[in-house]
């Protein structure tokens, strides 16, 4: 998984709500159909035609809603599907009985990215060398081609929330190009030649109203805002009248979640290479605040926690004074590498950030009124991942600690915790976590994994002796899955 919690190892994939898990081992594909159930764990295994599968993806968990509603009550769920793609073939499986639904063959080899498109009936396929992208319609048998995509990853394209228009960056010649395509027909509905040196990516706002494109850092601060039909609306270039010779440019951008009060994404965070974050309000896309990853004297009210090994050999957080907490593990030998990790809480009022100058620190900011540092968590190892709960102000953190398999937990209502996970540690330090996304606000279950093992569970005893309660285990060995399945028969 990346810092936001999307993705796992190449041989295993989770559905976005965590309800399904798929694994590939050689020519065997195993699907755990009910891994979150406490009373039944069903695994089905089928044989693939090749043993070189490169992509394993689930279709969306929930249907696309009309813009006039935010409730799933009475809305039928789409049929859940799974794709498995190799260089020669894309296979699509329906999950109810794990039956092969469709195959796409005779395609150009060496795909660079394959996933479901606007819905479960579309496959988006990026060809080698970024020559073109093809969208295959499983229900129609037709295909649509868009030439010269700039990137073959999710930085270069995105589907609009709810209505599913495709926005994509193209590079047909010397200039960057943004195009918008209608869902289904992929008819061109918007086109803009970008005034960028080298556009680095695009993102739809979660409310579907805006598209942002950011330029390479060497061009200085340049963030372009477009309407949903591809019309240029604003360009943010940093503070007015500032000395551009000190502008190191943009590293990343992140939209806030949709506000319940306004039904809109109200903030856009612009992470800079100089280690600051500009907060823009989405009414005017002007700067409302700048966050600096340097502890200030007037931030003494913030709670600073430092990870340490307790007397019994377990990890814990201890409260620390501001300046002393930030003394160690700072990488000040070279130029700052920028703010690479930013993530908003479900309510959009909290923002977590990681500045690569001190990649071991998670900064948590309160944005509801006057932006201020709420808390900082200082770790002994580099932070790999920061993941907010889908509905509550709860945060999970993983670090590259090769000696201790643990998840770090933070909420504004209690002392942060470091909880050991009962799985073998990994020498690579690659620990990943993912909240189980359900409609139950009280659900705090999550997956935690290494390249070899994944477990589902929750933290119990937070006020006394916190422990991880295991509900299910997914091992990388399909033999273990097969024996577990046999035991249920």
UniProtKB/TrEMBL annotation:
GO biological process, one term: microtubule anchoring at mitotic spindle pole body
GO cellular component terms attached to this protein's record: microtubule organizing center; MWP complex
Coiled-coil annotated residue ranges, if any: none
InterPro entries: Centrosome-WD_assoc, Quino_amine_DH_bsu, WD40/YVTN_repeat-like_dom_sf
Annotated Gene3D superfamilies: YVTN repeat-like/Quinoprotein amine dehydrogenase
Top-rank lineage group of the source organism: Eukaryota
Membrane spanning stretches: none
Name used for this protein in its record: YVTN repeat-like/Quino protein amine dehydrogenase
Organism per entry: Aspergillus saccharolyticus JOP 1030-1
Organismal lineage: Eukaryota, Fungi, Dikarya, Ascomycota, Pezizomycotina
